[in-house]
């Protein structure tokens, strides 16, 4: 399908969109509207600027992304070639990816300005000109821990020690479903059927600490499986693998959990729709009408402060 340039972005819902709106509606406006088309060469500077800031990352986020990419690679290599990556290989690749993010930020700022999706720019390097050394060292040290835990995790062990009783679903990058006419993005880390247990298993790798909404995020994924594969909720197991602590949490959801999650999602969509001027085109209201957060300490670490606080 040819790439279509739209004047306004398509409206869709995802957990990350919801979290952004909860953090600050103005930030939501920058990320989901002002930056639209900012990746196009011919876009105006305002959109390009907002898009660049949206693409800024930080050490914890870059670390999480690297661990996810390498977890996906480790699973793929096993499924395709029966090869189990070693801890040393994972650490080495992780270290070089972290280093690349640092070098991009330090030496390739011009390239990042032109192609912010292709190069990395770390928040501290952009706004302060240097990294927080202690934080960077801390995350470098975590590579050992997370990859050892990843290889020993229940999910990875399931895959590598019982491959015959596992059936894998294709890891499509953009899974989505439609609820009440709204496109809902569902990005799962790993999904398989445990044929012995007769269950679908949805796995989410977590590189941070346990959080309250980790479970409700997985309820959305469970709903997707119910819709797409006509599975019953009792046939679905959801699992968070906390690779920093080595702990996993496995849940069996009930119909009520799904109902609750759907209700929350619909409320969230309802709030988002207030920022639309036009329902069909998804043209947004003026940026001034996206209120700034009352919690001004959030501005200190916000990617968009350069634009927002200057206005
Ligand atoms: S700088 Fe503050 S008010 Fe502005 S978008 Fe960021 S968090 Fe919101």
From TrEMBL:
GO biological process: DNA repair
Pfam families for the chain: PDDEXK_1
Domain PD-(D/E)XK endonuclease-like: residue ranges: 12-308
Signal sequence segment: none
Protein name (record): PD-(D/E)XK endonuclease-like domain-containing protein
GO molecular function, one term: ATP binding
Keyword field contains Lipid biosynthesis: no
Keyword annotations from UniProtKB, A to Z: ATP-binding, DNA damage, DNA repair, DNA-binding, Helicase, Hydrolase, Nucleotide-binding
Highest taxon of the lineage: Bacteria
InterPro entries reported for this sequence: PDDEXK-like_dom_sf, PDDEXK_AddAB-type
